[in-house]
Amino acid sequence: MKHLIHFSAFLFFSLGSLTAQQGEISIHEEQSKYYQNKATPLVEKISVLTGLDILLRDHMELIEGKSIALVTNQTGIDHDGVPNYKRLMAIEKVNLQVIFSPEHGLFGEAAAGQKVSYNLNEFNLPKVVSLYGKTRKPTPEMLDGIQLIIYDIQDIGSRFYTYITTLGLIMEAAGEQNIPVLVLDRPNPIRGDIIAGPLLDMNYKTFVGYYPIPIRYGGTIGDMAKNIIANKWISSNPALTVIATKGWKNNVWFDETDLKWVNPSPNIPDLETALVYPGMCLIEGTNVSEGRGTPHPFKWVGAPWIHGRKLSQELNKLELPGVVFVPVSFTPVSLPGKAIRPKHEGQECNGVEIRITNRNIYKSVETGVHMLFIIYKYYSEQLIFREKHLNRLWGKNDLLNSIISGGEAQDFIKKI
């Protein structure tokens, strides 16, 4: 499976027509100084141990002699990059009975929305069960004989990233069966001290929005687990233990640590994409390409009927903090074996590339809102809103209503 993943990544970067437009690409001086001004990570890396590292070093008594269910994916690695399930399987007094995987699968191999199942003969692993298909919450039968559930997945700090929904469903199932839950904490890669976007109106509760939290919700996955219990967001609470990270602070970016980056899903290939995602994922609620099927998902936004230079100029006139926009042309392509096709597959799209110049002042959610308002202003006849999906991503219907009523983005943002 590992070889398959690497091969797919190679194909991903070798297919399609991906050509940036030449010529005048700047509307203000900052854009021409992009590379000079771009914020860089600290020279000295901060040493960080994750909850997994701390568990295996200091708290073996919590897992020895236990029959364990592990909820994880490819991001669940120790400081040296060894998968958590390999570490647990090597411990004589630990019985790893079942592994549950979230959306995108145990190895991060599945596209967004793609269902996953496993042929156990392919892996030297215990039973592997996907929680992204017909069953998204473990049944009592699946948890039969389990004495402890461990959750260890790297999140990216955005409400509609579904790993936190899986966390709640796991906790609820555990509470119903009186099984304790152990959450192994990991850093919020886009900092844990920044909150942005509206609270989810629970009338729009779905798998991509499960709690009344902002889009960029701050804190860590461990904090989320504690909040789920404190706010009674699930019907049955389990006994919860969170093993915190050591060395990480809320104002630290992931690349300022010495931890190894692992793509948390196929369309989050790097930290900067994770930062852009909370705003640009809103483009999914339209017929505009959000860059899926290209090497730069969520950083490239466009459609066959958009004029890239015009859009970049209008966005750059806004002088949004920490970002500039450059015209780009791209042709989305499907990867071999991927059932879900990207928007405008095989068609040349024109639009913009989002370039972050200062990530500490960049406002991802607000940038996404401005993008929607501007595209509607100039392409209202071609733009189609996927109303239901946009509302559930945003968490309410006021964004769509404000756009189509002809309001101004800045006025709307002040009310968030």
Task: Set down the secondary structure blueprint.
Elements: H1 2-14, E1 18-19, H2 29-32, H3 34-37, H4 51-58, E2 67-72, H5 84-89, E3 95-101, E4 127-130, E5 148-152, H6 163-176, E6 181-184, H7 221-230, E7 240-243, H8 271-280, E8 300-303, H9 308-317, E9 323-330, E10 349-356, H10 364-379, H11 387-394, H12 398-404, H13 409-414
Parallel strand pairs: 2-3, 2-5, 3-4, 5-6, 6-7
Antiparallel strand pairs: 1-9, 8-10, 9-10
Report on this model:
The structure is a single chain. The chain has two domains: 15-41 and 263-414, Alpha-Beta Complex (Aspartate Aminotransferase, domain 1); 51-256, Rossmann fold, CATH 3.40.50.12170. The chain is elongated, with a radius of gyration of 22 Å. 28% of the residues lie in helices and 12% in strands. The longest helix is centred in the C-terminal third of the chain and has 16 residues, at 364-379. It is of the alpha/beta class. The chain has helices at residues 2-14, 29-32, 34-37, 51-58, 84-89, 163-176, 221-230, 271-280, 308-317, 364-379, 387-394, 398-404, 409-414, and strands at 18-19, 67-72, 95-101, 127-130, 148-152, 181-184, 240-243, 300-303, 323-330, 349-356. It has 13 helices and ten strands.
